[in-house]
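in:
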């Protein structure tokens, strides 16, 4: 059998890994679009129910819908205490994020939350460096601050006076803290993954998340007049549970184990532009021209972050 020259043999990549890489990127584009829809949907239903109750229903419904799939594929066995602690740590990050999102959307706009969420790659890169010893490519060191500037430009509508005075509202501050929790989640997924199928890991994250939320929201569940909750609120919860929780979590966790947390989170830079596009589709006015340079900067940052080559590993999807 003819062998390739030394350098060519080293450079040759397994086709399966290449296909898995492209699959991860395609799935992340789909996931990013779905995540962008969660901001306007969340804003539309957040006043219909308490934010804790909303988040609990979202997690509980997602876990119930996913349980038959996991039971059919793997059977459901109670994890060890150590594994439950792993899953509980991950779900605590998600619970903090989604609870904060619903609370923030009562006080700020969907576009502002999407713009703040675009800071997640920078937070993820810092945590990945500390936790995973992940070394950033030189271009990433340029792109992360670029994306942060672009996100800030969108938040402050290009108003330099507001930037200098840090004119952030309470809702923006709440969501910033939630975004920090989300920024820790992706590196923790890679750090705490022990080789189990991603679907199995995700199911127990949803279950432990629902348990956290039940403990927090239990006093409020009895106060809700369920028959008075508008039907669109239930529809919004179902949409969030299936499309922006179940599907996106699955894509997010699998892609993180394949292409790494920083590259996965770089897709969040596209959220402000996608939220604007979705709003226009549903009849909202176009935003002022002042924010478009910020959107361009975040888009450029995404492209740069996705460009560097990283070590890939093959991981079971389901």
């Amino acid at each position: 059998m003819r062998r390739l020259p030394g350098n060519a043999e080293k450079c040759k990549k397994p086709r399966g890994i290449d296909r898995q890489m492209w699959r991860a990127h395609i799935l992340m584009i789909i996931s990013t679009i779905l995540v962008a829809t969660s901001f306007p949907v969340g804003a539309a239903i957040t006043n219909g129910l308490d934010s804790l109750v909303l988040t609990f229903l979202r997690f509980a419904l997602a876990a119930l819908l996913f349980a038959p799939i996991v039971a059919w594929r793997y059977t459901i066995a109670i994890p060890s205490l150590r594994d439950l602690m792993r899953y509980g740590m991950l779900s605590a990050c998600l619970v903090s994020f989604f609870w904060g999102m619903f609370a923030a959307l009562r006080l700020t706009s969907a576009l502002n939350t999407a713009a703040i969420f675009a800071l997640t790659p920078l937070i993820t890169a810092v945590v990945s460096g500390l936790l995973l010893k992940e070394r950033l490519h030189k271009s990433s060191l340029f792109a992360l601050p670029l994306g942060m500037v672009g996100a800030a430009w969108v938040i402050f509508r290009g108003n330099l006076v507001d930037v200098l005075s840090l004119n952030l509202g309470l809702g923006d501050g709440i969501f910033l803290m939630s975004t920090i929790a989300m920024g820790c989640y992706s590196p923790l997924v890679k750090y705490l993954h022990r080789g189990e199928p991603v679907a199995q890991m995700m199911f127990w994250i949803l279950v432990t998340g629902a348990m956290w939320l039940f403990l927090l929201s239990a006093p409020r569940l009895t106060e809700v007049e369920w028959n008075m909750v508008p039907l669109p609120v239930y529809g919004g919860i179902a949409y969030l549970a299936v499309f922006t929780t179940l599907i996106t979590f699955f894509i997010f966790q699998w892609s993180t184990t394949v292409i790494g947390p920083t590259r996965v989170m770089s897709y969040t830079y596209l959220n402000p532009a996608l939220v604007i596009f979705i709003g226009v589709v549903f009849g909202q006015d176009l935003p002022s021209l002042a924010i478009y340079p910020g959107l361009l900067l975040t888009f450029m940052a995404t492209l740069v972050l996705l460009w560097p080559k990283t070590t890939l590993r093959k991981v079971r999807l389901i």
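note: The two ends are 35 Å apart (CA to CA).
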